Amino acid sequence: MIANLDYNVRESQRARNVTLKVSRRRGLEVVVPEGFDHQRLPEILSSRRAWIDGQLERIDSLPGRFDENWPPRHLSLQAAGASFELDYHEVSGDRINLEQLGDRIKIFRPLEVDDESLVCLFISWLKGYAKQHYASLAKELSDESGLHFKKLVVRGQKTRWGSYSSRGTLSLNYKLLFLPEQLLRHVILHELSHSVHMNHSEKFWALLNQLDPDTQLHDKQLSQAWKYLPPWLD
Prior knowledge:
By secondary structure, this protein is α/β, with parallel strands linked by helices. The protein has helices spanning about 40-45, 50-60, 115-145, 180-195, 200-210, 215-220, and strands at about 10, 20-25, 25-35, 75, 80-90, 95-100, 105-110, 150-155, 160-165, 170-175.
């Protein structure tokens, strides 16, 4: 802790530099490379204090996770060009369930169900919907670009929109469903570019810019993409 600033430090094998992340759930998280000298952190954090204070102020200004709009009555999945109306029905017992009928979703829930259980139900459905939508789009972009993947998985990474493994596994975050379609396409092209360059070298960026001429704009928009996510997914 420095100057009334609380933070958590996490070492990562993938990290090459010190990265700061601010979220409602975790507060300020400092990601450092393995073996990094933690005594250097106060100086680094002091130099970024204005940015940190701004991000913490933004988090504090956001509505509560389970606010007056909870539970949601509408889901808008921009990346898929789809929207759904949600209907809730109280049932006996302790089982919570969801049923999609066209553009309507029925949720059957016991009277005493807790908010977190409802969130888990939504996430499970979103992951299934994302897998179906991402599969067709990823194949389309793969065919167009000539960049290939062997397997597609959908996850709920806390700090990443996607990844590409050396074994050819394309991993995409289900939360991309809430972002504009062009950002989902950009993330897929970004990860597919790693099938040629497993790094972020100049050659990698040259390839990505060739596939997506608006790469710089889309990267900037992704850094602010939190605003598209419903607060209950935080």
